[in-house]
């Protein structure tokens, strides 16, 4: 059985690699035509796709999944229309492939340039969101890459129907269907196997929680882009504008609490804690937020009669993904930075201050993918950053950091053209 | 013992990370002053360093190491002067840190830029070449990074003396000595431990053979830059200029056969094999080259009375690092490309041709770090490419590909500055 798994994966890998060679020479217009064909094919297969999704939903209900989970995997008429409409946005994005980054005539006689090219084959592991199947396939093809997809088992029927429609479109454009392949079994051993397929797969993007990220870091022999875990901080400095700071903190916490760039912990300089915290508690309580705090934060909350739990090492290391907020009073900016270095996942942090020295120090010393001055952590997002599309949000430092756009799906090769030139 | 190793590594990691925060805010001039101090310190400790190296050499002789190995680890007066002189070259290079890659005012009110910053902490694993200790430390410090070094056990005494001199210089500049740390034990378990130190180390660069590269790919939980293995090809197309091609092939094979960009296999279009191969054999035989070939190549060699072994799957997958050359006659350009895809390590390949269509097809379809038209594979080198310095030659596609200069030791962070700006 394990041997069969490996044979199956090697076959997927070989087919993907072979398909990637065809994709590498497509022009931008050819790739635009392919994406249009995919949109048409999804439209033509609408009934089949929605019927497949209904089977996934029925199975999920039978298995007792909760409402939130079922909502995540639901793909109704309206949502499918949204997925198809999003393809148009990608069609209109600039294609980075083929650009020559630099071109110079070297003293050794070589004309040297760096040409941007597709990565080749990308493996993506994700959870039970069928829209990701289309999003990722479209972004990969837009940049000339083949993909091997491994979605959540709860959406296997939906993903089969979606990928079949995409593969139809590839065939209709005279391209190899294996440019998009879905792993068609829920066997978990296939994930571990995929992570070691370094002969064929050039990059792994895991879109999932901490457990999946760790699994990939530990098992992959292929470069992995870790990300999507955001333990995010805002530090209200002694020179912060208190009323405006409360608005930014509330926005970062409340505007969409279930996503990775939502705020997890507020650090407050002790000299403004007495002024800021009572207003913050009142404001956020009314919005349904609950609190964990250090002793100083608890004392102030207790005076107001606001419920607050005791923060621990563990709570400071939580990504809440909910209307929960950690609060800590700190003695100075360096203590705040030290806290961030200890607990942050390297995603998004910000300082709230009117002091130019404090802001420069914070920007310099905080080492996260996105560092803000007087802005909500909620801005860390491909759309907000103007990238046009978002493959993932990387929290590692190599290749791509923060929101990843189309360019993160490409690499470059050095092109050297001589006239039968030898090295002296 | 294993627990002690882990404690030791965690301590190194914490100290390196802490040191990296101090380095992150240095200006270019401060880093130049540091490198000058390192050059002075190596000069001041010349006697100690050379004496330590003599102990390494004596030990190597006692252990029966061969002449080539001993020559590699030798650091005499002249070579140390060369190492010190090389620091001046690095001092004069432009410092990429602090550059803002783009700066734009977004519609959401945020002023957004990507600021180039040091990676943080770099782990480097290398073999018995003491000059690497200085080279890598200097390149890392130039870009504001801390390093943890693990050199070959044969040069431990030399490396201790060199790193002590570098750490002195750091202290004299008021910087933390732990910006440069050497693993002071030959225990192999420390390599595996270092590869899993992801809490503190941001990138691993293994400078060594296939075994080390594979170990890193399999065990590391930290992003690794694989590279330095070059199974390199030249394809002589049907439209190649035969006399000029022979010169380029000879250069690629003979000019320095022991390095990764030296040629391993020549692929020859069948329509020119009868014309090219006899001249190639004659020319290369005189230079001491021995051959492995396919049947077609053997037939031509036999006619000339040139000794040639039978090439196998295995020999085509060899990096020779010696005056040995594989030869294969192919029926067309796509067969040549297919051979390269099967056996190449993704380092350097080239086509020899006067045909513009063949060259474009080859450049497009061959997926290696460096792809050449009418040029020797020997050009793949940081110095030749004008990078000023070379950290390693990457054969993977993420972060850096091909010769890695100073920029490959940096990453970027997104900086967003608002006016207490919330996301709508």
Automatic annotation (TrEMBL), chains A, B:
Family matches, as Pfam families: Aldedh (PF00171)
Chief location of this protein within or outside the cell: cytoplasm
Subcellular location: Cytoplasm
InterPro entries to which the protein is assigned, alphabetical: Ald_DH/histidinol_DH, Ald_DH_C, Ald_DH_N, Aldehyde_DH_dom, G-glutamylP_reductase_CS, Glu-5-SA_DH, GPR_dom
Pathway the protein contributes to: Amino-acid biosynthesis; L-proline biosynthesis; L-glutamate 5-semialdehyde from L-glutamate: step 2/2
Keywords: Amino-acid biosynthesis, Cytoplasm, NADP, Oxidoreductase, Proline biosynthesis
Segments forming domain Aldehyde dehydrogenase: 14-285
Keyword Oxidoreductase part of the UniProt annotation: yes
Catalytic activity: L-glutamate 5-semialdehyde + phosphate + NADP(+) = L-glutamyl 5-phosphate + NADPH + H(+)
Gene3D superfamilies referenced in this protein's UniProt entry, alphabetically: Aldehyde Dehydrogenase, Chain A, domain 1, Aldehyde Dehydrogenase, Chain A, domain 2
EC number: 1.2.1.41
Family membership noted in the UniProt record: Belongs to the gamma-glutamyl phosphate reductase family.
Function, as annotated: Catalyzes the NADPH-dependent reduction of L-glutamate 5-phosphate into L-glutamate 5-semialdehyde and phosphate. The product spontaneously undergoes cyclization to form 1-pyrroline-5-carboxylate.
Name of protein: Gamma-glutamyl phosphate reductase
Organism: Shewanella colwelliana (Alteromonas colwelliana)
């Amino acid at each position: 059985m394990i041997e069969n798994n490996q044979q199956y994966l090697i076959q997927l890998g070989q087919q993907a690699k072979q398909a990637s060679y065809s994709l590498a020479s497509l022009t931008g217009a050819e790739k635009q035509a392919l994406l249009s064909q995919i949109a048409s094919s999804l439209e033509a297969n609408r009934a089949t796709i929605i019927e497949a999704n209904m089977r996934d939903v029925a199975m999920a209900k039978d298995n007792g999944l909760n409402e939130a989970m079922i909502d995540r995997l639901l793909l109704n008429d309206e949502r499918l229309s949204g997925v198809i409409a999003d393809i148009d946005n990608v069609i209109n994005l600039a294609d980075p492939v083929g650009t020559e980054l630099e071109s110079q005539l070297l003293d050794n006689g070589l004309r040297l340039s760096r040409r941007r090219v597709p990565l080749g084959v990308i493996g993506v592991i994700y959870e039970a969101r069928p829209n990701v199947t289309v999003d990722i396939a479209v972004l990969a093809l837009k940049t000339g890459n083949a993909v091997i997809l491994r979605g959540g088992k709860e959406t296997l029927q939906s993903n089969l129907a979606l990928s079949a429609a995409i593969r139809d479109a590839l065939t209709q454009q005279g391209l190899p269907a294996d440019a998009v392949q879905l792993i068609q079994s829920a066997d978990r051993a296939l994930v571990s196997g995929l992570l070691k397929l370094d002969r064929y797969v050039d990059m792994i993007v895991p879109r999932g929680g901490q457990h999946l990220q760790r699994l990939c870091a530990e098992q992959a022999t292929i470069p992995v882009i870790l990300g999507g875990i955001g333990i995010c901080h805002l530090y209200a400095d002694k020179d912060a504008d208190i009323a405006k700071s409360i608005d930014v903190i509330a926005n970062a916490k409340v505007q969409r609490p279930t996503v990775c760039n939502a705020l997890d912990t507020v650090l407050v300089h002790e000299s403004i804690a007495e002024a800021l915290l009572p207003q913050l508690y009142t404001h956020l309580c009314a919005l349904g937020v609950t609190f964990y705090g250090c002793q100083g934060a608890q004392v102030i909350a207790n005076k107001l009669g606001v419920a607050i739990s005791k923060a621990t090492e563990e709570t400071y290391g939580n990504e809440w993904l909910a209307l929960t907020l950690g609060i800590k009073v700190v003695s100075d900016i360096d203590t705040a930075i030290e806290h961030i270095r200890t607990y942050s996942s390297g995603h998004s942090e910000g300082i709230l201050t009117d002091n130019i020295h404090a802001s420069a120090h914070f920007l310099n010393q905080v080492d996260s993918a996105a560092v803000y001055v007087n802005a909500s952590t909620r801005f860390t997002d491909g759309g907000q950053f103007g990238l046009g599309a978002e493959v993932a949000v990387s929290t590692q430092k190599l290749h791509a950091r923060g929101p990843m756009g189309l360019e993160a799906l490409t690499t470059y090769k050095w092109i050297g053209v001589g006239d039968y030139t030898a090295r002296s």
